[in-house]
Design goal:
This protein has 83 residues and is mainly alpha-helical. 82% of the residues lie in helices and 0% in strands.
């Protein structure tokens, strides 16, 4: 039987991992669409603009959410095994 502490940590960890993966994928897809030259962007626009900051923010936020989720999954597993 799962204790309430381990159950909460496991569910929160799973949610963080899922949201983190979604954010990371969303950032990668947006970055790929932005840099796709076939949508009408010419080479000078491609070379003059850096990576749009919200794409990097989405990817970084996703990576942080995955790390927090994995930490919570480990804590929940330890509480499950010890409790």
């Amino acid at each position: 039987m799962l204790s309430s502490d381990s159950f909460i940590a496991l569910v929160m960890g799973g949610v963080f991992v899922v949201v983190g993966i979604a954010l990371f994928v969303w950032g990668k897809i947006g970055e790929r669409k932005y840099y796709d030259l076939s949508v009408g962007m010419d080479v000078t626009d491609y070379l003059e603009h850096g990576i749009e900051p919200w794409f990097e923010s989405l990817k970084m936020g996703g990576a942080i959410a995955i790390a927090v989720g994995l930490f919570l999954l480990v804590i929940g597993s330890v509480l499950l095994l010890l409790g």
